[in-house]
Amino acid sequence: MLKGLKPMTAHNEMHAPEVKAAPDQGDLTAAFEEFMTSFEAFKEANDEKLSQLERRGADPVTVEKVERISRALDTQKQAIDGLALKKVRPTLGREGGTSFADLERKQAFDAYMRSGDERSLRALEEKSLSYGSGPDGGYLVPDETEAAIGARLADLSPIRSIASVRQVSSAVLKKPFAVSGPSVGWVAETAARPETAASTLDELQFPTAELYAMPAATAALLDDSVIDLDQWIASEVETAFAEQEGAAFVNGNGVNKPKGFLNYTQVDDTGWSWGKVGYTLTGVSGELPATDSSDVLVDLVYALKAGYRQNASWVMNRKTQATLRKLKDADGNYMWQPPASPGSRAMLMGFPLVEAEDMPDIGADTTPIAFGDFRRFYLIVDRMGVRVLRDPYSAKPYVLFYTTKRVGGGIQDFEAAKLLKFGTA
């Protein structure tokens, strides 16, 4: 555990209305140095365990030591990521100052949040012919607050940080794609050009669904003029939104939520076709092969076309990462490498590794590892506008703020990523 650091939890992220100062760069550097020291200790202990296995069998004390250091590495990495996120927390405000219209809206929104006075907001939205009126279920937050929520979600939500994100103003994004490419051919410079066959087009649809959070505030908090309520509402909902999004982008069934990439039909990559997600096999049910374990990872990497490998990432949860951390290549080098700097990602076989806790654990016939270019693989659709409805009645004496945004998601290029299935078929 890092000295002087408390692990980030949903509790202390969700219930801290005051805007805390960014961590000192020295704290982040010291934490990173301690993490690197732990990794060296892990390699030394794991090498000792492997040496014992070759001779007579691993000492239980050594095995426990390896697992303990591995767990400490996970904890330290989470703490470093937390420090890095807090350091880059976006401020509420725009470069070059705020226009009078923006300031007027911010003041009107602040009055609505503190006292429920919606007259100024109603007048502003009637003047702009906005659809964000009270009868529609609340009022739109100021643009800079929405931008702050979006920026933090990109940092907190692992899939959002690597996927494509598109903003829309409608409820559904419809994206055409070519099932078959156009007919092409070679011709002489002066020869006639025959008409080419038209492409066969199909359409992908990405409907948006409502995601909500309901932070509560006391009267004392709302009366405190020092507290920036825009910043407070952003910090309260960001973690709740990120957790729900993360689960949906991986495992969502597409009913009133995005469709997760593991919820599509999965097939052996040798029989892959458009509309399905291909996988390669470990050849052992629920485990890596006993010998040449790293070969299955090499096979997964090269199952992906070269054009997708250039920007590819690994996606797996913490437990799976701990298993792969012990693997070595044919030259005896560890395949997992720690981040090069605070806030960056660990590397596996030269590709960045993204930790997504909603990925399944290693088990029989599970697909706990994904590899691909997620920017081209998965599309996240955000409908513009975050809405807040003030509710002073349902949980008296607390005031609830029913905060909603609309988000959708799904696979847009089925060739851009592959899965590793821990099974035989």
Automatic annotation (TrEMBL):
A Pfam family per the record: Phage_capsid
InterPro entries: Phage_capsid (IPR024455), Phage_capsid-like_C (IPR054612)
Domain of life of the organism encoding this protein: Bacteria
Localization of this protein: Virion
Main location as per UniProt: virion
Ranges for domain Phage capsid-like C-terminal: 137-422
Protein name, UniProt field: HK97 family major capsid protein
Species for this entry: Nitratireductor indicus C115
